[in-house]
Amino acid sequence: MIGRFMPSTRRAFDSLSEQEILALAISSEEDDARIYKAYADGLRADFPGSARVFDEMADEENKHRNLLIDKHKERFGDHIPLLRREHVRGYYERKADWLIRPLSLEKTREQATEMEKQAERFYRAAASRSTDADTRKLLGDLAIAEAHHEALAEKLSKELTPDSVIEEEAETERRQFLLTYIQPGLAGLMDGSISTLAPIFAAAFATGRTWETFLVGLSASVGAGISMGFTEAAHDDGVLTGRGSPIKRGLSSGIMTTIGGLGHTLPYLITDFYTATVVAIAVVFIELWLITWIQNHYLETPWPRAMFQVLLGGSLVFAAGILIGHA
Q1: Are 266 and 216 in contact (CB under 8 A)?
Q2: Alpha-carbon distance 301 to 314, whole Å?
Q3: What is the per-residue pLDDT across 255-289, written as a single tens digit (0 to 9) for each?
Q4: Alpha carbons 292 and 287: distance in angstroms, whole number
Q5: 43 with 97: CB under 8 angstroms?
Q6: Which residues have C-beta within 8 Å of that of residue 206, sequence separation ≥ 6?
Q7: What DSSP line would sit under 18-70, residue for residue?
Q8: Domain boundaries, the chain
Q9: What is the tens place of the pLDDT at every residue in 188-224?
Q10: What pLDDT is recorded for position 326?
Q11: Coil, helix or strand for 261?
Q12: Rounded CA gap, 149 and 126, in Å?
């Protein structure tokens, strides 16, 4: 609101002189080279082949910067005005690499593609503003180079990341996903679905009242979710085990634990006790099937073993809840 009545502190692109356009291009190439280097450093431990691709991309940006600096020295001397992206209104912005961490192959490649498209548009606009033939040619050549960078990245990928390396990196990324999200989430879903069976159905058969059963289930689910989330986040920081961010693992575990318990708790919002119990039991079977499917699909546990483990554990806890409720 206030910005509508106050003049902008940013320059309009059309107001820039040719020297300022060159200065902006130089600082932009320096920033892009740093970003590509940061991508390479962030990927190097798990994806060394792809990291080398971004190292090469950073080198290309540095070559562009050197060409621009030479042209600036030739036309305007050694002093380069301090002009950066944030000084120009409507100019494209770059996300700091730490804002998109943890880095993934797909995310970094998408970001790099968008960076090159933005740079190409800038150089075409800058070339159209230049009246010096050599400068116009340089800016036009850089626009073409940026347009070809995606092809360069593909070429470098083929040279530096052969199929065997790509498959290895894809497997590493899949393993990281399993360790950070699937395993903690599955552990939470199992704990929430199975461990809450006893208190919920014990309360149901002991009281015969749906609202009281719902409150017991709600408190058990939320309490178990908080406990599991904090436990997962606190017991392993992921540095030595490579299991990823403890916050992400804690959230995965805590949320799935709560969902697992709420699944067969929510039916007790139905006022009729027998209807609510039948629906809750049906939900339990759905939950147990889902756990079995996740184990088979993501962790490659054979169907028979996964079904035996889940059904045995769930049946024992369910029976304990009914027996305690009737005691």
Answers
A1: no
A2: 18
A3: 999 998 999 899 999 999 999 999 998 998 898 88
A4: 9
A5: no
A6: 324, 325, 326, 327
A7: HHHHHHHHHHHHHHHHHHHHHHHHHHHTT-HHHHHHHHHHHHHHHHHHHHHHH
A8: 2-161, 167-326
A9: 888 888 888 888 888 888 889 999 999 999 999 999 8
A10: 65
A11: helix
A12: 19
Contacts of 178 (CB under 8 A, 6+ apart): 298, 299
Phi, psi of 6 (to 5 degrees): -115, 140
DSSP symbol at 242: -
Q: What is the DSSP string of 215-284?
A: HHHHHHHHHHHHHHHHHHHHH--STTT----HHHHHHHHHHHHHHHHHHTTGGGGSSSHHHHHHHHHHHH
Residue type, 55: D
Distance CA 217, CA 210 (A): 10
Angle formed by the axes of helices 18-44 and 105-129, nearest 10° = 170
Residue 12 β-bridge partners: 89
Q: Which of 95, 113, 27, 109 is nearest to 64 (CA)?
A: 27
CATH classification (class only), 2-161: mainly alpha
> Among candidates 191, 261, 263, which has minimal Cα distance to 232?
191
Identify whether 102 is preceded by a cis peptide bond (ω within 30 of 0). yes
Query: Would you call 207 exposed, middle or buried from its count of C-beta atoms within 10 A (0-12, 13-18, 19+)?
Result: middle
Which of 70-74, 87-91, 127-131 comes out lowest in average pLDDT?
Answer: 87-91
Residue type present at position 115: M
Q: Hey, what amino acid is at 207?
A: T
pLDDT at 4: 44
The pair of three-digit structure tokens given for residue 170, joined into one six-digit string = 């894809």
* Mean pLDDT computed over 307-318: 73
pLDDT tens-digit profile of 9-43?
Answer: 778 888 888 899 999 999 999 988 988 888 888 87
More confident residue, 105 or 127: 127
- Indicate whether 69 pLDDT > 90: yes
How far is the C-alpha of 254 from the C-alpha of 268, rounded, in Å?
A: 22
* Token pair recorded at residue 242: 């490579």
Share of the chain above pLDDT 90, in %: 18
Token representation of residue 120: 């190409």
